[in-house]
Amino acid sequence: MNAPFARPVTRTRLLDLADPGELARLEGFVARHPAATPFHRPAWFVSVARATGNEPLALVEEHDGEILAFLPLDAIHSPIFGRVLVSSGFAVDGGLLTLPGSAPDAIFAALEELAVRRSCPAIELRGGILPEVGSGWTRTSESHATFSRALAADDEAELTAIPRKQRAEVRKSLAGELSVETGRDERARAAHYAVFCESYRNLGTPVFPRALLDAVMDGFGDDAEILSVYHRGVPVSSVLSLYHRATVMPYWGGGTFAARGLRANERMYYGVMLHARRRGCTHFDFGRSKTGSGAYAYKRNWGFEPRPLTYAAWSAPGSAVREVNPANPRLAAQITLWQRLPLAIANRLGPLIARGIG
């Protein structure tokens, strides 16, 4: 009598992220998946969760030990904004990745059960495969857009690719008393964070803890780099960029009050374009902006066309929708107050609040 065939085993579970072998499996899965982004990498979601005092989670569907689906998560707790599972935390993407044969509905069911078990009344999914609307799930495609295009063949072609009015601003920045530095060392990080703190205060937004930015720099290694623009030895604009599959993404950046008059931001972004091409990049991802915002218009001025982003959110029965959108009129007074804070106070209080925004 022939022995019966063993049934293939499919299961959904959380991986042990303290196990280096499991982290290596995830990195390999992400490296091979065509839809993966930097925000799927353990170098991102594990690093940023731990740097902000939150918990990283990796929900996977496995078939005979092989990963068929993967959802990176940050379990974020804030006394102000409440508890939420986010994929991916502090990111603009990082949703569910699947392979043929996977069962997304099983992942979403496990995700809801996980949220309830961890007393998280909300879930946010940013990109990837999304659940159908209903049973607590909603979708939005109107709130944010992303901007990207191919890099030009050389420096002059890159300048010519910028629309005339914005190109004139870039030319003025090139003629000014500005210098550019790139790096990953303490000088680069300190300059970036000083500019970043002032920029966020001026926007009325609590700044992230420096540990978060350092964690990303350390986790990504050479795939993360800082470019800063100096005026007479003082940093006035700076951005931390991520590199992924021949694409550069200037992600965390900003400028001081002086940056606008000096056109330092124009020098910064043009500098990133040139530097990225020399690193072998072929595309520039200008990142996410809120639809209709000043940043949205600014990126269009550079000749980038918006592509709407679709996000999904879940609220437990009887729970209010989580609201952290700074465009909400209810937050306008808090934003105005924050803009008036002395920088030293904003820098002290900001990281305590921002670590719970996600």
SSE arrangement:
Elements: E1 10-14, H1 20-32, H2 42-51, E2 55-63, E3 66-78, E4 82-87, E5 97-98, H3 104-117, E6 122-126, E7 137-140, E8 144-150, H4 155-160, H5 164-175, E9 178-183, H6 186-203, H7 210-220, E10 224-231, E11 234-244, E12 247-255, H8 257-262, H9 264-278, E13 283-290, H10 294-301, E14 306-308, E15 311-315, H11 332-339, H12 343-354
Parallel strand pairs: 4-6, 12-13
Antiparallel strand pairs: 1-2, 2-3, 3-4, 3-5, 6-15, 7-15, 8-13, 8-14, 9-10, 10-11, 11-12
Helix pairs in contact: 2-7, 5-9
Structural overview:
It holds the Pfam family Acetyltransf_6. Residues 167-300 form the BioF2-like acetyltransferase domain. This is FemAB family PEP-CTERM system-associated protein. By secondary structure, this protein is of the alpha+beta class. The chain folds into two domains: 10-141 and 310-322, Aminopeptidase (3-Layer(aba) Sandwich), CATH 3.40.630; 149-306, Aminopeptidase, CATH 3.40.630.30. Helix content is 37%, strand content 28%. The strands form two sheets. Strands 1, 2, 3, 4, 5, 6, 7 and 15 form an eight-stranded mixed beta sheet that branches. It has a seven-stranded mixed beta sheet with strand order 9-10-11-12-13-8-14, sandwiched between helices. A hairpin with a 3-residue loop joins strand 3 and strand 4. The relative contact order is 0.16.
